Description:
Layout: E1 5-11, E2 15-22, E3 27-34, H1 40-52, E4 59-66, E5 68-71, E6 76-80, E7 88-89, H2 90-98, E8 102-106, H3 107-118, E9 127-132, E10 136-142, E11 145-146, H4 176-179, H5 181-192, H6 198-206, H7 210-234, E12 241-245
Parallel strand pairs: 1-4, 4-8, 9-12
Antiparallel strand pairs: 1-2, 2-3, 5-6, 6-7, 9-10, 10-11
Helix pairs in contact: 5-6, 5-7, 6-7
Amino acid sequence: MADPRVIGVDLGGTKILTGVVHRDGTVEHRRETPTPTESQDALLAGLDAAVEELVEDGIVGLGFGIPSRLDQKTGRVEGSVNIPLEGLDFRARMQERFSLPVGIENDANAATYGEFHSGAGRDVQSMVMLTLGTGCGGGVVIDGKLYRGWAEFGHMVIEYDGVPCQGSCTGRGHLEGYVTGTAATKLAQEEFGPAADAHRLIRLADERDDAARRILGEMGGKLGAGIGSLVNIFDLPAAGCGWHARSSGPQPA
Length: 253
């Protein structure tokens, strides 16, 4: 078959990104749609529509990056923090729906391995990556192999009895509660009123607003604390630790 291609789907808490990916990593026909979060059925319908828009002759498989806890052996989504997806054999459902082979991976793991294979980490053997968007995810490659454990880096505790986490997480003081686009919007609203959001926070900081700069500075400090802990745990050089912004708008870092 000449130039077999796959459809890649990056499911986030804010948006669904899709594209047709060639063997050499080239991406074409990129699409972006809002993530339906009112129910699991609505979310699945949105994913179906996003894939249907790109299905054509020559597509040999589908790959989904999902911000969820996955059981790779069964293809089941065990639970999610920022999207309504839980208790579903996602891989089998999508295989049946599109009659194509389906690969699934935690979205942060997928991003990490992509950077390791073709991006910022291609010259190292071990690396950690944090993804910042609606939530905070992370992945790690150790000695050239992607770690597929329950590595929920966004839920490491950086402040004892700190702010409540977001989404369905009931923890407190987690990194995710301090460094995401969701956190930025919350802090912006507390400082500037209910109409403010992360976009406005960034704009005000660019305009040298002292309060906005203070908020972003504090967020950056929390992010640095989390990154420092990961560097210490995995004994990484500075070049082996990075973050990747994945929201629908500007991200503080």
